[in-house]
Amino acid sequence: MPDPRKPIGVGIVGLSATGGWAAGAHLPALSAVDGIELRALAASSEAPAQAAGAAYGVPAYTSVEQLASDENVDLVVVAVKVPQHRELVLPVLNAGVPVLCEWPLAVDLREAEEMERAAGSTRTFVGLQGRSSPAFRWLADLVSEGFVGDVLSATVVASSTEWGTPVSQNMVYTLDRKLGATMLTIPFGHAIDLVSMVVGELQDVVATTATRRRQVPLGRTGQVVPMTAEDQIAISGTVAGGAILSVHHRGGAASGAGFSLIIDGTAGRLEITAAEFPHIGPVTVCGTRNGGRPTKITPPSGYDDYPGLAGTVIHTLVHAYAAIRDDLVHGTAVAPDFTHAVKRHRLLDAIGQSAATGQRIALHPLRPCAQ
């Protein structure tokens, strides 16, 4: 456990001098949280490592093993493309260093389970930062405290502009379902994690999926590239307590991106909307109890520790880093870990099974792994 008197030292794999998600989100999020700071980084080769090290003023390494062995690094963050997660996470776990890996954790359930087993007693975290969202933590409390009464149903309609619109060369890999960075795993995976946090986990699921666009334009080149990832995902199932959850996520939407969650209960209704990614951007909440038109409601004080960052892409990530800091220093277990990631991968795997077979798939609770 890190010394609580000293900031937690972070080493990032994937922090580039030329930008990217790690530079645009992880770095400013770290800077906004007291008690945790960047100490080192690693890149795939000498030139980009040295460029990034010079840009951010920290030691730069060319392997994750070197990064994990730096005595000033208490947490390794893996912020690279999904197919590389396993090969980078396992050496960190073998070194016994806590790790935060971006979501999706792995390309499939088998890899995710392997990484969970490899963790042993080492602390792990997964980048489902939406669970740290002030709005969704408040919504989970609203529902559990009976704002809508007993939940009868929850209905999600979501759209992504990707997976159908022109794609850059750098993002072509997201069109290949075997590489694990698809509409099902990324926007749907993040969204279903938030919905499960609010209304409960699915106990069973039946799914219909389709790839309606078999080819996607490659930027403005005039060429097309094949797509095997699903661009239409429709599921339904029963959550704990008996409520029905239905979700339809649409890719390449000509009407633009969006997210809507409607929760109906015996005593009220909640309507949650977002412009696109609810785990990153702001959401609007309207509610009503005992009849009447839903009106806008807002969280009380106490949920948002960083109100000055509300509306930015790092707002939930900052809360996630604060939770990870507290978990490492105080031994708590608030931030989602690899065991939680496996549970989410298991749901995605069940959706794939159901879509392939036409059968309803039961999702059985699992015993926690021995620590």
Automatic annotation (TrEMBL):
Residues 9-122 form the Gfo/Idh/MocA-like oxidoreductase N-terminal domain. InterPro entries: Gal80p-like_C, Gfo/Idh/MocA-like_OxRdtase_N, Gfo/Idh/MocA_oxidoreduct, NAD(P)-bd_dom_sf. GO terms for molecular function: nucleotide binding. Residues 136-273 form the Gal80p-like C-terminal domain. Transmembrane segments: none annotated. It comes from the Bacteria. Pfam families: Gal80p_C-like, GFO_IDH_MocA. This is Gfo/Idh/MocA family oxidoreductase. It comes from Kibdelosporangium aridum. The lineage of its organism: Bacteria, Bacillati, Actinomycetota, Actinomycetes, Pseudonocardiales.
